[in-house]
Write a structure and sequence with these properties.
Number of strands: 12
Bound molecules: S-adenosyl-L-homocysteine
Oligomer: single chain
Shape: globular
Strand content: 15-25%
Mean pLDDT: 94
Radius of gyration: 20 Å
Number of domains: 2
CATH class of the largest domain: Alpha Beta
Low-confidence stretches: none
Helix content: 25-40%
CATH superfamily of the largest domain: Tetrapyrrole methylase, N-terminal domain
Order of helices and strands: HEHEHEEEHEHEHEHEHEEHEH
Distance between the termini: 12 Å
Length: 271
């Protein structure tokens, strides 16, 4: 798209915003807003989140949030609490303490997370800490990477005749109570989108076979979804691990398993 076209899209959005009767809330000193930044593309930010970034004077963010989104919070002091693929470089309790401490200093705090804060983002734990310390909070939804990623990879999340449900699962919890019962999920026959799935992919795939999925089941890896470097690798359940290794797929990536993946080729058209 030329600069000129971008310019007119930007003017159109300014005018559209003026017509929209949106009552954006004020971020009060001493409050914490947990905001979802979406999967990466700044176009997927909600108005609430853009407004939060504009109001924050303290921004606590993860590795999954793109630099150009962080830069929107121009006035805010930035606290990077780098956290990726379920691994913490800063323990969760220290992040909780930081949020509570900033709020108690009377800062206007935005805690920005990739995707949606309440989808595999430990948002619930942070809110629990805020509640225990009587800190007022709000949670601002974001587009979760499963739905942003499927869409930008050209895969509908549901399609009549193919699936009546879609499963979002974490592949990271190898042995804990959070570990999904993969064989039971496989038996539903419904597509599964796996977050944080690269590390334990071979074990997950073996469990899906044990649940009755065939090696021909369509599967894909979506890396850096909605970002300029997005890449989709299409395989089958039988060739998924080999394809991920061959193509050197790295985090952040989603694994998609199920008939919806085959629609990608059918729906690929002019863009
Ligand atoms: N709260 C986030 C998920 C955090 S868990 C959300 O709602 O999306 C981190 C995992 O999310 C990553 O390991 C990856 O599986 C997935 N993820 C996040 N952003 C992604 C992106 N841009 N492309 C592909 N996967 C992504």
């Amino acid at each position: 798209m030329s600069d000129n076209k971008n310019g007119s899209a930007n003017t159109a959005i300014e005018q559209a915003l003026n017509r929209l009767d949106v009552k954006l809330r004020v971020l009060e000193p001493g409050h914490v807003w947990l905001a979802g930044a979406g999967p990466g593309d700044p176009g997927l930010l909600t108005l609430d989140v853009v407004s939060a970034l504009g109001q924050a004077d303290a921004l606590v963010h993860d590795a999954l949030v793109s630099p150009e989104i962080i830069a929107v919070a121009e006035q805010a002091e930035k606290f990077f609490v780098g956290k990726r693929g379920g691994r913490l470089s800063i323990p969760q309790k220290d992040i909780n303490t930081l949020l509570v401490g900033l709020a108690r200093q009377g800062r206007k705090v935005v805690r920005l997370k990739g995707g949606h804060p309440y989808v595999f983002g430990r948002g619930g734990e942070e809110v629990q800490a805020l509640v225990e310390s009587a800190i007022p909070y709000r949670v601002l939804p974001g587009v979760t990477s499963a739905f942003g990623g499927l869409t930008s990879a050209g895969i509908p999340a549901t399609m009549r005749g193919i699936n009546g449900a879609i499963i979002l699962a974490t592949g990271f919890a190898a042995v804990s109570d959070d570990r999904p019962d993969w064989t039971a999920l496989a038996r539903t026959g419904q597509p599964i989108v796996i977050y944080m799935g690269l590390t334990h992919m071979a074990a997950t795939v073996a469990d899906l076979f044990a649940g009755g999925l065939s090696p021909d089941t369509p599967a894909a890896l979506i890396e850096n979804a909605t970002l300029p470097q997005e890449r989709t690798v299409v395989a089958t359940l039988g060739t998924l691990v080999e394809a991920a290794n061959r193509e050197n797929v790295v985090s952040p990536a989603l694994i998609v398993v199920g008939g919806i993946v085959a629609l990608r080729a059918k729906l690929a058209g002019a863009s």
